[in-house]
């Protein structure tokens, strides 16, 4: 199950994020290898009510932000296009991570299912997400969850920081 995160969850969220950074580094993926996401990013998302925790046996084993505003990074798409039914109203999954030690339990699949249901409950009929081109693990989970590849975006308009973007209609 998932639940909204509170300010007291911030240390747990940062610990999960740090573990995810280590996993990405071990896989040779440059995503999240700087300061981002910062404590300020996490605190802001919690304050907005955008951060959710995935719980297993009453323990937080995953974190994600269900961003509920248009993402400026998605305004221009390269080497592709948003699907025709696209609208300005969509939810975006950001900063998703599952704590190591839970591999093989398909918790990512469960988390995506719950986040999709939550987005639908909140009135969204479209979801978007991005990931690094080298993050085969995340791409596999996205395709299993029903997302389709749409193209490439630049993060913060940086031509060296490219992400594959995916879209799902609910």
Automatic annotation (TrEMBL):
Top-level division of the source organism's lineage: Bacteria
GO function terms (MF aspect): acyltransferase activity, transferring groups other than amino-acyl groups
Entry keyword Kinase: no
Domain N-acetyltransferase: residue ranges: 1-170
Presence of keyword Acyltransferase: yes
InterPro entries the record matches: Acyl_CoA_acyltransferase, Bact_Acetyltransf, GNAT_dom
Keyword terms of this UniProt record: Acyltransferase, Transferase
Source organism (scientific name): Lacticaseibacillus pantheris DSM 15945 = JCM 12539 = NBRC 106106
Protein name, per record: N-acetyltransferase domain-containing protein
SUPFAM superfamilies documented for this protein: Acyl-CoA N-acyltransferases (Nat)
